[in-house]
Every structure is written in structure tokens, then in C-alpha cells.
Design goal:
GO biological process, one term (chain A): transmembrane transport
CATH topology of chain A: MetI-like fold
Subcellular location (chain A): Cell membrane
CATH superfamily of chain A: MetI-like
Largest sheet of chain B: 10 strands, mixed
Membrane topology (chain A): Multi-pass membrane protein
Number of helices of chain A: 13
Number of domains of chain A: 1
Family (chain A): Belongs to the binding-protein-dependent transport system permease family. CysTW subfamily.
CATH topology of the largest domain in chain B: D-Maltodextrin-Binding Protein, domain 2
Distance between the termini of chain B: 43 Å
Helix content of chain A: over 70%
Structural class of chain A: mainly alpha
Shape of chain A: globular
CATH architecture of chain A: Orthogonal Bundle
Oligomer: heterodimer
CATH superfamily of the largest domain in chain B: Periplasmic binding protein-like II
Structural class of chain B: alpha/beta
Order of helices and strands of chain B: HHHEHEHEHEHEHHEHEHEHHEHHEH
Distance between the termini of chain A: 10 Å
Radius of gyration of chain A: 23 Å
Radius of gyration of chain B: 21 Å
Keywords (chain A): Cell membrane, Membrane, Transmembrane, Transmembrane helix, Transport
Strand content of chain A: under 5%
């Protein structure tokens, strides 16, 4: 039932967390799968665990944790990260849901075209997308010129170097991450459910509220959590599109490492972020599993 | 979808280990050079010195006026990188994998690096100090460069006749209602000094710097909503030429270089702030002898030095070069006695002691508290 939904949404996180032995497969001799895992384990040990280990050691120096948690800038950037991620997630999921429904309702050809339109920006680098937004949103940019040209505004609106711009840039980046899991959930809905509902007299709104929405809840939660997790790590978008008040935790890590050359503090911050994201990743996998059981049963 | 997962993973992994990227990046290159470099006892002609500076037009000028002539004279080649930073230097020295040979640091960064024991002592048996002015000679580096922190404007929006003549006018939002771009960090930018000067504090009373008073002034003139921040030296040139801002802080050489390329920008040296940069050699640098020979060349070669001064309008710490300059060029340099009465000399010692907490304070202020 979830064969279309789960792999699409689960791949990024499984990859991010690292080696996850296959579940429920026929038993093979222990040594065989260990051997197959060996390249991944070596890769992870050298390129992921070693640096993380050094971060841990480094973060224990100079009372780094106490120091960074007392820094008002850190507190501020943590609150910013939470607020910006939450707002971006909300906007992404709402827009992504609408987009997914539109794609789902079209015929095969239109679907291909619409998916291409979703994927095209997805394959474009985040920096390119952000600078494009900066060009559009600046005081003498396209948006402001158009608004003034049409006589809608007198002077330029402040569209760049603020939270609005950061969220616009992030939503643009994040949209595919929401569209795909939600679309997968929609595609998995049995067509006959809707026919049955209609034959019993349900209108469009009722079908949506009582059939489609409940059945896509797991897809939406998965999309929301995935998007939120990715949001917490944004770095370049607040730099290019935000103002100084929009710095997120990754920017603060960069500030500690590069400007203050306080590597212990930067490591402590990086590990705190890792910790929070790990908890979210665990929650994400629970949702996926719960969603699978719900739909399977 | 595979691309999707790979990308999200590598991005986040990268960000989580942000402090370590500096360590990891040079790792690959070191494998290639590690075996060969140790066996080189002295700077042979096929040595390559890795030099780091700030990039943009300045790197082109460094290459043309100093690095190429040095190579022609000695056969020692150099690679010039644009990503100089104390953080990068520190990460390399700490990890024992030193990729850079000659590193540009701001004056407060130099003093911090000395404190933390990250630098090689300069060998003045290789570097002749005949052409080196005494202010530039230091134990662990040479203050090779003096530059001028200035106010700059876009001539298409602000004709020279209406341009600011001092920091009070520059920060006056009634006179210029547009946004101003200022350098977001303080290690070689002097916006806080500028705010004190704008308030009427005389040059000799600027230090010890009253940071709170400077920030209070900036909060009213021009106010946070009229300030945007740049993070790289070439950025204000783009912001000015694209029309994003009409006023910006910058450095005299950057504006001059842009003008030579046809940009309609200008600046005034009046009310400028003179500061200096050091070249240092990281502890454990592979080609330190070649680096010292390059420093010897920079400090003593009259022709190359004069070409550098002429091209950049910056003062190289090389008295032989200064002696060769025509008066009209010498008068425009940051160290010209003609300017001495109208410019402020940055207090490196104060900044070395107060840089970190002031950077944090300024960042917090920018964020609105």
C-alpha cells in the first residue's frame, strides 16, 4: 500500500542517518550482509564519524557549552531558526499540498509537464535561486519596479534583507521536498473510495474533508517534518536574502568559527544542532512507520 | 530522488561540521604534496609559495605588480588564493596540515595569532630591512600594507558636488534618505570610529573607543533600517554599481580599481581611517624560506614596489619604492603627510584587545538588540 509513498520520502533520512540494515528480509548468513555493508561503514567511519568525534572532543574545551548558551546571539539565532523553519514549513506544506493536488488531478501528459516544472528549480543550485530572488526583490528590482510602474506603491517596499525574503527563498528551495511525499500519498488513494463516497451523495468538499485529507495525513506529516529538518540547516539563504536580524544557527556556527575563531564554541553549537535534528529524524521515522501501519491496516 | 537524498545529506552534514570544513578541505591536496615537500631544504626555483589575500581586484593587482616580477627574478612561483582568514590559518596549524605559506591578516588578527602561538618568527637574515620602514617590521610578520577606510558613493545618484565630506554627512538620513552599505565585521573596518567622528569627537579622543556611544549614534543616524551590511571587500562595488545602494564604506584601492574599469564611483580620503595588514607565515609552513624571500622582494624591490603603489594607491612598506614615486601619486597614498591632518590612524592595540567582544556586540546590535 505504501510501496509508492515510503521509499520516496524515506530515502533522504535513511541516507542521512547512515547504515540501516534491511528489515524483514529472508535471513542470510551474518557475514554476508556485513561484507556488503563494509564499504558504507568504512566510508562513514572515515568521513563522518571521525570528524564528528573530533567535534565532540573539541566542544568539551573552554566550557564551550556554558559559554555559547549564555550568548544572547546564540539564543536569538536559535529562536530565529525555530521561527523561520516553522513558518517556511507551514508555507511549503500548504503550497506543496495545493500543487500536489493539481498535479494528481491532471492527465499523464500534464503531470509530466508539471513535475518537470517542479524539478527544474530543484536541480538548480540554491545559491543561483537565492541570488535570482535578490535581484527580483531589491529596492530597484523587478517586483518593486512593477509595483511602482503600475501605480500600486509610491516608493520601494522593503522586500529584501528581511525575514519575508528568507522565507520566500527557503520555500522555493523546499517545495519539491513537500510535493513528492504528498503526491505519493495522494497517488496511493484507491480511486474507488472517492467513487463510493460520491455515490453516497458526498460533494467535492465532503470528499476532500472526509476521504482525501485523512488519507494524506501521514504524507503531510512526513513532508512537514522532512521540510522542517532541512530548514534547520539553512545557511546561505539568510546570508543572501536576510538581514542581520535573521541569522540562523548555521550562520552563528560560521560566525563562531570564522570571525571569533572560537572552534570549541562552533563545535558545541554544531553538536547541539545535530542533537536537535537527530531527535527530529527519529520522530520522522516513527511517523513513516506509523503511517505505513495505518495504511496497511 | 537519489540526487535529492544525496544533496540534503551532504548539505546538512556540511553545516553540522561547519567548523571542520576548513580542516577537511585542504586534506586532499596534502596527500599529493606531503611526500615531496619535506625533502626540499631551501627555496629551489621550482618551489611554489601559496599566498592568501582578500580576492577581487586586489588579487589581480598583487599578482601583476609583485608576484609575477618576483617569479621572473627568482623563478619561485606563487599561487594566490582569495580566502585568507585567521580561522583558516588556525585550523591548519592546529591540524598540522599547513597548506598556506604566506597569509594576510588584519592588524588585530595578527596580534591574536601571535598570542595563540600560530606563527613562525620572521627571519631577518633573509629579509633585508634596508627598505623596510621601522613601523612595519615585527617579530612574527611584516605590516606590509597601509590602506584607507573611506566613504564611497555612486556618482549616477549622488554627483560629487552633493557627496558627503565627512562621516556626519555620510550618516545623515535627511541628507541621503537611501540605504548605506557598511562592512559587517570590524577587524579591518572602522564604522564605529566613523560614528564617533560624526558625533564630533576629535581624532585624538577616539580611543579608547566608546562602543556604546558609537552604536547609539548609528541607531539614530541613519538608523538600522537605513543600513545594510557587506561581508566581502568587493561586495560594495557590486552594490554601488547595481544601484542597490548609493553610499557605502569601502577601501580607497577598491574604488580606484572600479573607476579604472569605468564604474561611476568616487570616494573621499578626508575623514578616512588608515589601517594596516600583515603578511605572516603559519607555524609549520612548507615553504617558509621562499615566503621570506618573497617578503624580502616586496620590502626592497623599488620598481615592483612603486608599480604596486601606483596601481593600487595603497602604501607598500617599502621606502625605496616610495622614493621613486612622483609627487602626485605619493600625495594620494594613505600614508601621505598631506592627508595626515584629515585622517584617523587606527589603534591596533585597542582592537586586538577588544575585537572579539566588540564583534559580538556589533552583531547583536545589527540584529536589533
Amino acid at each position: 500500500m505504501t510501496s509508492t509513498a515510503t521509499p520516496v520520502a524515506a530515502t533522504p533520512v535513511t541516507a542521512a542517518v547512515g547504515a540501516d540494515p534491511p528489515r524483514g528480509r529472508p535471513r542470510r548468513p551474518r557475514s554476508a550482509w556485513l561484507l556488503l555493508l563494509a564499504p558504507v561503514l568504512v566510508f562513514d567511519a572515515v568521513l563522518f564519524l571521525t570528524p564528528i568525534g573530533r567535534l565532540v572532543t573539541q566542544s568539551t574545551h573552554d566550557q564551550a557549552y556554558q559559554r555559547v548558551l549564555k550568548d544572547p546571539l546564540v539564543v536569538r539565532s536559535m529562536l530565529n531558526t525555530f521561527e523561520i523553519s516553522a513558518l517556511s514549513t507551514l508555507a511549503t506544506v500548504v503550497i506543496g499540498y495545493l500543487l500536489a493536488v493539481v498535479i494528481w488531478r491532471r492527465g499523464p501528459l500534464m503531470r509530466v509537464i508539471l513535475f518537470a516544472l517542479v524539478l527544474l528549480p530543484f536541480w538548480t543550485g540554491v545559491l543561483v535561486k537565492n541570488f535570482a530572488w535578490a535581484v527580483l526583490l531589491q529596492d530597484n528590482g523587478l517586483v518593486n519596479s512593477a509595483l511602482q510602474g503600475l501605480g500600486i506603491t509610491d516608493g520601494p517596499l522593503a522586500l529584501l534583507h528581511n525575514r519575508f525574503a528568507v522565507i520566500v527563498g527557503m520555500v522555493h528551495y523546499l517545495l519539491p521536498y513537500a510535493v513528492f511525499p504528498i503526491f505519493a500519498a495522494l497517488a496511493a488513494i484507491d480511486d474507488r473510495l472517492e467513487l463510493a463516497a460520491r455515490s453516497l451523495g458526498a460533494g467535492e468538499a465532503s470528499v476532500f474533508r472526509r476521504i482525501i485529507l485523512p488519507l494524506t495525513v501521514p504524507g503531510v506529516s512526513a513532508a512537514g517534518l522532512l521540510v522542517f529538518i532541512i530548514s534547520t540547516g539553512f545557511f546561505i539563504t539568510p546570508v543572501v536574502l536576510g538581514g542581520p536580524g535573521d541569522m540562523m544557527i548555521a550562520n552563528e556556527i560560521d560566525f563562531y568559527a570564522r570571525q571569533l575563531t572560537d572552534f570549541a564554541g562552533a563545535s558545541a553549537l554544531a553538536l547541539l544542532l545535530t542533537l536537535v535534528v537527530s531527535v527530529l529524524v527519529a520522530a520522522y521515522q516513527r511517523i513513516l512507520r506509523a503511517g505505513g501501519e495505518y495504511e496497511a491496516g | 530522488m537519489v540526487e535529492n537524498s544525496d544533496r540534503s545529506m551532504s548539505r546538512r552534514t556540511l553545516l553540522r561540521t561547519a567548523g571542520f570544513t576548513a580542516l577537511a578541505a585542504p586534506f586532499a591536496g596534502s596527500l599529493l604534496t606531503a611526500c615531496s615537500s619535506k625533502s626540499t631544504p631551501s627555496a629551489k626555483p621550482n618551489t611554489t609559495v601559496t599566498v592568501t589575500s582578500y580576492g577581487g581586484s586586489y588579487n589581480d593587482q598583487l599578482t601583476k605588480t609583485l608576484l609575477k616580477p618576483f617569479e621572473n627574478k627568482t623563478g619561485i612561483r606563487s599561487t594566490l588564493l582569495a580566502n585568507t582568514s585567521l580561522a583558516g590559518l588556525k585550523a591548519q596549524v592546529r591540524s598540522g596540515d599547513v597548506q598556506w605559506d604566506l597569509v594576510e591578516l588584519t592588524a588585530p588578527e595578527y596580534l591574536q595569532a601571535v598570542d595563540e602561538g600560530l606563527l613562525e618568527k620572521f627571519d631577518y637574515s633573509i629579509i633585508s630591512d634596508k627598505g623596510l620602514p621601522s613601523y612595519a617590521r615585527a617579530e612574527y610578520g611584516i605590516k606590509y600594507l597601509s590602506f584607507l577606510f573611506v566613504m564611497a558613493w555612486d556618482q549616477t545618484h549622488i554627483p560629487d558636488a552633493r557627496a558627503p565630506r565627512n562621516w556626519e554627512q555620510f550618516l545623515d538620513k535627511a541628507k541621503y534618505p537611501t540605504k548605506r552599505s557598511v562592512y559587517g565585521q570590524l577587524s579591518d573596518s572602522s564604522i564605529l570610529e566613523a560614528a564617533r567622528l560624526a558625533e564630533g569627537v576629535p581624532f585624538d579622543k577616539i580611543y579608547p573607543l566608546d562602543v556604546d556611544a558609537a552604536l547609539r549614534y548609528l541607531a539614530r543616524h541613519p538608523g538600522r533600517d537605513k543600513l545594510i551590511y557587506h561581508t566581502a571587500n568587493q561586495e560594495p562595488i557590486q552594490q554601488l554599481t547595481s544601484g542597490e545602494v548609493a553610499l557605502s564604506t569601502s577601501f580607497n584601492n577598491r574604488i580606484n580599481a572600479a573607476r579604472k574599469d569605468g564604474a561611476k564611483l568616487n570616494f573621499t580620503a578626508s575623514n578616512g581611517v588608515v589601517a594596516g595588514d600583515y603578511f605572516v607565515v603559519p607555524k609549520g609552513a612548507r615553504n617558509k624560506e621562499a615566503a621570506f624571500r618573497l617578503m624580502d622582494f616586496m620590502s626592497n624591490d623599488a620598481d615592483a614596489g612603486a608599480d604596486f603603489d601606483r596601481t593600487t594607491n595603497l602604501t607598500l612598506a617599502n621606502t625605496r619604492a616610495l622614493a621613486k614615486l612622483p609627487r602626485e601619486v605619493a600625495d594620494t597614498l594613505p600614508t601621505s603627510p598631506k592627508l595626515a591632518d584629515t585622517i584617523l590612524v587606527r589603534d591596533d592595540a585597542w582592537w586586538a584587545k577588544n575585537l572579539k567582544q566588540t564583534e559580538q556586540r556589533f552583531k547583536l546590535w545589527q540584529a536589533g538588540s
